[in-house]
Amino acid sequence: MAKRALITGITGQDGSYLAELLLSEGYQVFGVVRRSSSQHFERIGHIQDQLTLLSGDLMDEVSLINVLRECRPQEVYNLAAQSFVQTSWLQPVLTGETTALGVTRMLDAIRTVDPSIRFYQASSSEMFGRVKSVPQNEETDFYPRSPYGVAKVYGHWITVNYRESYQLHASSGILFNHESPRRGLEFVTRKVTHGVARIQAGLDTQLRLGNLDAQRDWGYAADYVKAMYLMLQRDEPTDYVIATGISHSVRELCEVAFGAAGLHWEDHVVLDPAFLRPAEVDHLIGDAAKAQQELGWRCEVDFYGLIEMMVAADIAALTT
Ligand code: NAP
Ligand code: F7E
């Protein structure tokens, strides 16, 4: 019998890569999709015939209970969230409802339907915010700097709490930024690589950005979903930092991305205060030693390979 896994957020960047991975491991894969007036399954269109999509929403615990009863999974990967930091200042309550309380709803649905289900929570390096030590690992204190980061801290601790209170096999992956050609256009890596492709094609001349000094530890999403899967194969649930251990600034990102298309970033990038944040996370850099030792996890694509891949994909998409 094939193992069954349920993914919330299957239409998102990580959900699509995780679905591919679990299918390749022989799983029967189910995904939660929320009702919308128009479907947007671009990231999973190529595998949709192998997936079973079920209607549900992290805002509605009844829908989660029904989904679990219908698909009876052994593993649940909770990737759904309002995931864009900037939007979390504009919609702080919605962000709390989905990114924070949504985790409780899913954990409680699991406790109700089948407490033997293994659970993965998509925690975030944004929880470290104004960092307390460098690099950040599983022992580093949290100091979130956005409503999104605050909501993720809640989601993280409720996962720990349900593990300790009810002995659920619940693990939390504290993932640093991970990107890909499937990244949403609003996130800075994809905004830059997509902007580079448009400028190279003569469709635009400028790219408007905010804080060029922010530094992030950027990895490749397809590498990171492997860590999620590995966490749920362990006998003991626990939490892991997943990161490359190397950080770069947004300015370096621009240099590499424009350079990959034979352009100079300083000719095109315009600073726009509209993209500055009320409170910034200046520098994140992760220490994934625990995941390397216990899970045997490694990242295979580095920052330069990642950005070149994304620029090439955005250029190809404009020319085909
Ligand atoms: P993403 O592309 O923004 O995808 C978010 C997913 O959540 C989408 O499938 C979205 O569905 C779904 N969703 C949002 N609200 C929902 C709701 N109320 N009910 C059900 N589904 C809902 O995010 P991602 O980059 O793949 O990230 C996956 C998870 O990892 C998120 O929890 C994110 O916060 C976390 N994370 C991401 C990173 C990163 O660098 N990518 C790092 C650390 C943690 P629609 O398609 O219907 O909008
Ligand atoms: O910003 C700066 C911005 O929006 C990165 C999410 O997946 O990773 C992501 O959150 C940095 C910030 O990602 C622009 O100020 C400059 O310092 O790509 P981002 P994020 O906020 O780090 C974490 C780990 C998550 O968990 C989140 O879900 O880039 N920046 N200029 C800009 N950022 C954007 N978006 N747009 C700009 O124009």
Key features of this structure:
single chain, alpha/beta, binds ligand F7E, 10 helices, binds NADP nicotinamide-adenine-dinucleotide phosphate, UDP-galactose 4-epimerase, domain 1, Rossmann fold, 7-stranded parallel sheet, 13 strands, 320 residues, 2 domains, two-stranded parallel sheet
Task: Give the oligomeric state.
Answer: single chain
Q: Number of folding domains? A: 2
Cα separation of the termini: 41 Å
Whole-angstrom Rg: 19 Å
- Across the major sheet, the strand order is 3-2-1-4-5-6-11
Tally of DSSP helical segments:
10
Outline type:
globular
Return the CATH architecture of the largest domain. Answer: 3-Layer(aba) Sandwich
Order of helices and strands: EHEEHEHHEHEEHEEEHEEHEHH
Name the beta content range: 15-25%
Q: Structural class per helix/strand content? A: alpha/beta
Report mean pLDDT, rounded to a whole number: 98
Bound molecules: NADP nicotinamide-adenine-dinucleotide phosphate, ligand F7E
The helix content is: 40-55%
Sheet of most strands: 7 strands, parallel
CATH uppermost class of the largest domain = Alpha Beta
Poorly predicted residue ranges: none
Number of DSSP strands? Answer: 13
